[in-house]
Design brief:
The chain crosses the membrane at residues 68-89. The protein is an all-alpha fold. The protein is built from four helices and no strands.
Length: 95
């Protein structure tokens, strides 16, 4: 369940980052795909770091509001970061 939350919030985070950073916007499809990849990575990194018990609660099946919010935050930030990297690489290749 936490993977699905991370992927969905990553897609949203990628599109939000694309909307805020117009020079890195790659269109809805690329923004969403980059966000999904980043959301998966962000959730995995969050689980590996054990961010304050959020990952343990999610792994133990205790999907409370804190673990859901942690997964949404990790996925959204991861999606935005991967979109920024993809946007910078594509912009550099275009020059």
């Amino acid at each position: 369940m936490e993977l699905i939350i991370g992927l969905l919030s990553g897609a949203v985070g990628g599109n939000v980052a694309g909307g805020l950073l117009k020079n890195l916007n790659q269109g809805t499809l690329i923004n969403s795909l980059s966000g999904i990849v980043g959301g998966g990575l962000g959730g995995t990194i969050l689980s590996a770091l054990g961010a304050g018990g959020v990952a343990e609660a999610a792994a133990g099946g205790g999907m409370d509001i804190a673990s859901i919010l942690g997964q949404v935050a990790g996925g959204g930030v991861g999606g935005g970061v991967v979109l920024a990297v993809v946007g910078m690489v594509r912009n550099a290749m275009g020059k």
